[in-house]
Design a protein that fits this description.
There is one protein chain. The chain is about 40% helix and about 20% strand. The chain contains ten helices and twelve strands. The strands form two sheets. Strands 2-1-3-4-5-11 form a six-stranded parallel sheet, sandwiched between helices. Strands 7-6-8-9-10-12 form a six-stranded mixed sheet, with helices on both faces. α3 crosses α10, α4 packs parallel to α5 and α6 crosses α7. The termini are far apart.
Amino acid sequence: MVVNGRDKVDPKTRRRVQAAIERLNYQPNLYASNLAKGRTRLLGLIVSDIVNPFFAEITQSVRQEAHARGYEVFLASTQFSGQELAGAVKRMMGMRVAGLAIMTTEMSADVLAQLRKNRTPAVFEDVGTVSETISNIRIDYEGGIFKAVKYLIDLGHKSLIFVRTEPDGSPQHSSFLSIAARTNAFQKAVNQFKMQGVQAEIVTCTGAGPKAGQQAIMKALDLPKKFTAAMAIADPVALGVLRGLQLRGVKVPGEISVVSFDNSYLCEYLTPSLTSIDIPRGKLGKMVVECLLGNIEDKHPGRELLLETNLVVRESATRLMRSKTQPSQR
């Protein structure tokens, strides 16, 4: 009763127990205790890539919110593999986690079936299908990307490119729903300004974010059609874009403006600092934990939530100087 924090213990007895705990360096077996109770205070968190600052910041936010509610978090990553995702879910359910937060780009139908069969509370980012025990937090890609495209157009840019990457070994683009969602959002935004003469190209390379971003911008610079602004699908890709432009001697933002997505902490400290669409990680972490614990503790049904995005303006995008000729993009 002392170990479990119960109040109904004689003070003298409590002091004797606490002294014994200190003398013996006793640590309770919480896993065994939770199994005996039929529940744990452990949440599973699965992300696509722990190296990417976006996923690292999500992890920090979810951990902070979970700890505030008395829960621990167990972390796994998939490296964009649907097979790894299914394996991580199976292992975590074997650990009797109370619920799962699946913040991944990839998705597997087997995972949804497995979670529903076991009635494991879960919350997804974008890729989930709402049911009694499953929630989905949908990121407002369209709203954020529209703001970014409009911002570039208001600065005078009418020739844009969208730099996107796919993980190595990707069997098909449609398996990565957030990539498709961001791409579709960009195309939809551009279409709304076509009557103003706005044109855009999409350039894709496979591989890790920065390297693929650099390769993609090199390829874009060699295209016959020139551009004055580039939008990267994510901040790591933008790092490669900035490096590629630097290697070609193209000035940012003097010759080409650059905008990105995710607004990781790196954006503020780059030179030039990077204009990026912000997904508020603190709010996302709170939504994830509240959804899970609402289902775990209060038996609330799964639900669909929308997380709004905003454009954070910094130095990497500027007004197009019409008096100057187009950059050589050498």
